[in-house]
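Co-fold these.
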Amino acid sequence: MDVLPNEEEQMVKNLAREFLEAECPPRLARDMEKDDLGYPPDLWRQMADLGWLGISLSEQYGGQGLPLTYLGLITEELGRAIAPVPFHSTMVAALTIAEAGTDQQRQDLLTRVSSGDLVLTWAFSEENPRYLPDTIRCQATEDGDSFILNGTKMFVDNFVAAEKCLVACRTAPATDNNHGISLLLVDAGSTGVSQIALTTLAKDKQSKVTFDNVRVPKANLIGDLNHGWRVAQRMLDRGTALLCAQMVGAARKDAEMGIDYAKNRVAFGRPIAGFQSIQHMCADMILWVDGGQLLTYEALWKMDQGLPAVMEVSQAKSFCNDKCEAVVRTSQVLHGGMGFMMEFDLHLWYRRVTAWSMRLGTSFEHRARIARALLDQPGQVRLGMNLEMPA
Amino acid sequence: MDFAYTPEQQQLREDVRAFIEESVDDDVRQEIEELGIRRRGPKVRELYRKLGERGWVGISWPKEYGGQDGSRIDQYIVEEEFARAGITVGGAGSGAPAILAAGTEEQKKYFLPGLIRGEISFALGFTEPQAGADLASLQCRAVRDGDEYVINGQKMFTTAAHYASHIYLMARTDPEAPKHRGISIFLIPMDAEGITVRPLWTIQNDPPAPAGTTYGDARTNEVFFEDVRVPASCMLGEENMGWYVGAMGLNLDRVGASRYLISVQRDEDIVNYVKSNDLGGMNLAEDTSVRDRIAELWIEAQVCRLMTMRSMSLVEKGGNFTYEGSAEKVFAPEHGVRTTETIAQILGPYAQLLNGSEDAVEEGVFAHNLMGAFQSGINHGSTQVMRDQIARRGLGMPRT
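Predicted complex below.
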């Protein structure tokens, strides 16, 4: 039992922070809000050279084979730097290919991910953006060696930057025992694919993507036909835990900016950091971000160990949604009018953390999962014991 | 990072549970109920002797003072299992961390084995009628007279004074110095001549709170010192350095299983209650609002657990707290209050029924908790003072 990063983990985290402080100033995030691609390929290349893109992918595919916790720490630092890179979406898709893909698919795809040559994304949500199997209406029908894909996906991250998109679609009715979902890796440039850019609070790249009779080779099926829901669940949970890490990283930086500002801003003849009301706001920011961080680390660690982690993921996301949001809002308040100024950088963090709180599960959705595990199965509960979802 | 207990630690937990099952019988429980756990009648003393035989007391303390040189996590496991059975072994408020850090060899040899065996316990003599959160303004005086000190003054809310063997006393030794620099700590037997203990009855006294209530103490005390003469060797640490000795000890004493459990046990209770009681068809387990709030509380309880584990991890690595102990002491008690008040709105009028009432739920523990939960955010350093410390020690913000 040691809930703190060990020396090696801390070293990886520190190195990531040093690199990003030098190479990824807030100006980059600001510039990329107006960029068509949404990320600087140079930075992506450097991240590949540092081994980040394959940090938790197998050495067979050019990765480092390190535990998921390391990927979490890198993601946390990218969040801290609000790095405008398609890291999260690429990792979510790549880890799912690593889990469910064939040897050939892994060899072909993951090697290119590790080397920085392949940007990926994934698409689950549709018009009803709940993370439940019966919300999936995108339909793939078999036609010879191909599937023909039709439907519309919402809130797809970095679609404009991605070469391929892992799409959850229906290949059998929802009444099927396994929910009738399959995962297809679709080339973003295929005939019949179109996207409309969504203008998000974060001003990052999300798209509404429509598939109109898109032909996808059967070789691009990831995992077993009709059995994609279980794989998708794990994909969503991993993505959620990593998003929590990103939120925690960004929220802590945001809190630190608030604390620094309070130490320098003079009012009533002294730095406002000397006022107890301000100090208590700052103390609360640290409590909240610490709580989110501990929950996130536990979720990542459990997943890495192959232990059931649904509860831990939902705990982390619900808490981060509420508390990271409270952190960045408190920091805005500490900054007074300055935080409201376009010219001032603080809003870059505020807008991102706030947008992230709505992705990959709202607080209500995650708490509903927790309530199911707590209340919908027999037996006494006890804190510290493993609690799994009811079947 | 490693969020699991080792197989050995899991076995230890099983062993402790089995021991409690076997050894904490109705007779022991009855004695605890009559005397309170910390007063120790013959049956509880026998229980402690058996614990000592198994090497389950003072696990993380140095061997030379009666401990086992073992892991803090192991000790935590034993503390948690006993705390869940309503029995305090080691844990918060023992005074031991400060004695280990600042005591003379003689003091360590005398006090630590006694604390481990449960033969010595301290009442914390900090608070005074005019010195609570502003503890450093305390006025109780200790005046040097040859090889002795003469103590005069009054302490208040000294909860263990009527059963503790000793008092861990903060007194002023230099009234001319700045207030933090004129305080010393004395370890004084409660039977010293000139000490008078008078009871102060709390709102938990009538009816008595059921076992496990957060701050269910029926009684606390005021303690008067009239020309109490003690040998100079009773002083802990250097003269006038008592503030710093005390502050360090308090930080270490704030963390641990009992502090954690008093803040989260109602979370477990409400889940277990709601899923097995229908209350005439009210069926709370299917109420969407109730489900959401219970899940929210559960998540916070996990944060309490993880903050406790963070403190254990820091201690285990030999690290020092800057603000982590204070963070735990803000989050957990405030969570306990949120849970207690939320449960009131979940159970409605049942949650007002006190111990002994017809139809009281779980012996009235939820109602009694409403009289006790806020107390845990006050004692041992209020949550407001704790936030001051987070800001100053953790975030480098200036004194106000």
